[in-house]
Predict the structure.
Amino acid sequence: MLETQRPLVEKLIVQANRLTRVAAQATGSTTPASVWRTLSILASDGSYRIGDLAKACRVTQPTMTKLIQHLAEDELIYRIADVADSRAWLIAITDKGTTALDAWRTELGEALQPMFADLSPDETQILDRAVAILESRTNTARKVA
């Protein structure tokens, strides 16, 4: 990355986080962000072991274990025996989880629609292009820190 791009990338991250927070607050939902983050990761990346999913979601393994229990009770995820290690389980999203995630994303978009209603066609094209650029940078093979 060019040094001149770094401030732009920093601003982009800050504004994306702010936009997500504003949208979530506008919905009035009390569902923790960790639920949607977990389902989103499983939907985009596929199944994970609990420890790796905790790393991807940036939570501790005990926190992820609790979250997985609740998500399983709500039938949003399910456990799969790991064929590579009979002691381990993989966590995957269910159809119900995918439907819930899609509904949440729709709700977020609807909540912020008024904020973007006055965009010009040029501004809409700019945002559309920005989304495409972001997708090209983030739709890569999963990396767990």
In short: The mean pLDDT is 92.
